[in-house]
Amino acid sequence: MKINKVNHRVKKTLVAVLLFASFNAFSHQDPLPSWNEGESKKNILAFVEKVTQKTSPDFVPTAQRVAVFDNDGTLWSEKPVYFQLLFAMDRVKEMAAEHPEWKTTQPFKAVLENDQQALAKIGNKGLLELVMATHAGLTTAEFRQVVITWLAKAKHPKFDRPYTELVYQPMLEVLTYLRENGFKTYIVSGGGIEFMRPWTEKVYGIPPEQVIGSSIKTEFQMKGADLALVRLPEMDFLDDKEGKPVAIQKFIGQRPIAAFGNSDGDLQMLQWTAAGEGPRFMSIVHHTDEKNEWAYDKDSHVGKLDKALTQGQSDGWTVIDMKQDWKRIYPFQLENN
Amino acid sequence: MKINKVNHRVKKTLVAVLLFASFNAFSHQDPLPSWNEGESKKNILAFVEKVTQKTSPDFVPTAQRVAVFDNDGTLWSEKPVYFQLLFAMDRVKEMAAEHPEWKTTQPFKAVLENDQQALAKIGNKGLLELVMATHAGLTTAEFRQVVITWLAKAKHPKFDRPYTELVYQPMLEVLTYLRENGFKTYIVSGGGIEFMRPWTEKVYGIPPEQVIGSSIKTEFQMKGADLALVRLPEMDFLDDKEGKPVAIQKFIGQRPIAAFGNSDGDLQMLQWTAAGEGPRFMSIVHHTDEKNEWAYDKDSHVGKLDKALTQGQSDGWTVIDMKQDWKRIYPFQLENN
Q1: B159 φ, ψ to 5°?
Q2: A 266-285: CB under 8 A from B
Q3: CA proximity to A275, closest of A295, A253, A260, A259
Q4: Given CB atoms, is B207 within the 8 Å cutoff of chain A?
Q5: How far A143 CA lies from chain B's nearest CA (Å)?
Q6: Across A24-50, average pLDDT
Q7: E strand or H helix at A322, and its extent?
Q8: B151 — alpha (psi -120 to 50), left (phi > 0) or beta?
Q9: CATH class of the structural domain B36-79+166-336
Q10: What are the chain B neighbours of A193 within 8 Å (beta carbons)?
Q11: Hey, is the C-beta of B335 within 8 angstroms of any chain A C-beta?
Q12: Does the beta-carbon distance from A209 to B275 stay under 8 Å?
């Protein structure tokens, strides 16, 4: 009886020790395992610590822990061109049978003939024409399905993998880490809002109401016997440059305390975040890994990074050097590590 | 020693019993104490029960539990005119010294002279002029402060109480009840988005990012040495009628499963909600209490309710009869009950 009692006590102590140990292990687990030790990782951890510790002079209440992320080039790749443009080009090919006039009309002709030289010259007007022809005319529900269907079969030309696998593992870890620390994470992208929403929850853990992007107008209509929101071939809002702070105010109604971007299109969003009161975190993903992704900045047509890099370096923003700071780029590279 | 032990056991049992009893009392507490027993209350409770019980065929996952609420006439009063118009009129009086031309220009002259006859005739164009003159030209931060300052001192002409006290206690209970059951509650109002955001969290428990409303354009500018979002005298979006489903898709990205309105301006939002798949809850607040609030519907200039009432009655939406269904209108009436 006495031995039993001792045994019982030993067991209880053992359980307590194990529980404490595992809790301890958990609490000391590295939240950013795909990041090399260095300034960038240190800055992220230090910022989150100081705004979440109740005794910290920089403590920020949960309701104000808003973090915004650009998408193209910040959360997933954007080369050889924005993935949404590749989607539009695939749509042109799919829809060509219904549009015989496209065989002889630019920019559609260039897409159908894979004419790289002509494609390089289509400019913003041509791009807009491609988007309107391929993104409008459907209901929002139909467009959602088109995006889902495309993503399920389309493969990236270089990596031969679905586009949604070309997201940055280190940034997924930042998103999760911030949310575990009471942050609300938002996408604020120049990309189409309804092009992103069908997959951001699954891929990034970001629900549709926290996705902000460029939009075309929609109209509430009777379609047959059904009500529908029909997508019109008319721009509603361009969520880029000066548009980003405007959209942040419109959708979120308060200023973020953390912002992540990668190009001059994100400069105003970063400046707007920086100009708020209290602790701030501004970060730029700098594409420096030519071997595993791409290396580009001020001379790139896609994701041009020039002024934002200059200001980031002079103002002490956290400039992430993908080659130096990241152990791996994509989630599928976890398999090999 | 033995007695002590027994005492200890009795205490422990007592504590357990008390804990259980209070838990039990809590779990059976009426979540809608300001509602009379009747169809409306029964319908709300039954809907929430069937969408939240995991074993129910009508179970809806938390991520899809989206409920939208009109504001004027649905969550707070809207008589004698929309409170935001009273705000604009007070602003005109405040700003009159800087605008000597208003003394001789309509609609400003009518406001400054309290000319009720002229005010009744200003129409939508006059209303828009009043809003632009009083809501634009400031930064978003400045406008927020103007709204807060006004609300702190302005009193309703009939009740002589701050406008934020003229919210409906039974609807506050519905908001809380829905949120406790995993719903996200949104305002979708024809009122100005930045007029509502400064106070909705405190008054309704609805944070700024869940407030959708009409808006004027803003522009990202350098103001002195500071960055600012400046409010421009130009309409951006009218969140009324067909605009409501459009705004719901834009801001939320999915269709609500519950919608509450009170006027024909909410009809399309209610129809859009009703037309979705799975369990739905559509409700209309019908103003029938002439003694404690106001009684009005199809002949009212503010909050006209005609087509929506007809469709609501024929389609089995929950039409809330304020006089019959509610024990009290405003929170301050709790003191007397």
Answers
A1: -90, -15
A2: 268, 271-272, 275
A3: A259
A4: yes
A5: 13
A6: 89
A7: helix A322-325
A8: alpha
A9: alpha beta
A10: 250, 253
A11: no
A12: no
- Does B227 touch chain A if contact means CB atoms closer than 8 Å? yes
The pTM score is 0.90
Secondary structure class of A157 (helix, strand, coil): coil
Three-class DSSP category at A231: strand
**CB within 8 Å: B219 and A211:** no
User: In angstroms, how far is CA A25 from the centroid of its own chain?
Assistant: 30
Q: Where are the beta strands (DSSP E) in chain A?
A: 66-69, 184-192, 211-223, 226-237, 258-261, 281-288, 295-296, 318-321
What pLDDT, in 10s, does the model give residues A81-112? 999 999 999 999 999 999 999 999 999 999 99
Mutate which of A235, A244, A249 to disrupt the B interface (most B C-beta within 10 Å)?
A: A249
The torsion angles phi and psi of B227, rounded to 5 degrees, stand at -80, 145
Q: Which residues does residue A67 pair with via DSSP β-bridges, in sequence order? A: A185, A258
A68 within 8 A of A188, measured Cβ to Cβ: yes
- Candidates B201, B220, B250; nearest CB to A242: B220
Long-range Cβ contact pairs of A221-225 (< 8 A, separation 24 or more) = A223/A139
A204-220 tens-digit pLDDT: 999 999 999 999 999 99
On chain A, the residues whose CB falls within 8 A of the CB of B200 are none
Interface residue A209 vs chain B (CB under 8 A): yes
Q: How far is CA A156 from CA A112, A149, A161, B76, in A?
A: 18, 15, 5, 53
pLDDT band at B8 (very low <50, low <70, confident <90, very high): low
Interface test with B, best of A184, A196, A229 (most B CBs within 10 A): A229
**CB-based contacts of B74: which residues, under 8 Å, 6+ apart?**
B168, B171, B260, B261, B262, B266, B285
Q: How far apart are CA B118 and CA B259, in angstroms?
A: 36
Cβ–Cβ of A140/B249 closer than 8 Å? yes
Which of B 102-141 lie inside 8 A of A, CB atoms? 140
Show me where the domains of chain A are located. 31-80+161-336, 84-141
CA distance B280 to B20: 35
Q: Quote the CATH superfamily of domain A31-80+161-336.
A: HAD superfamily/HAD-like (3.40.50.1000)
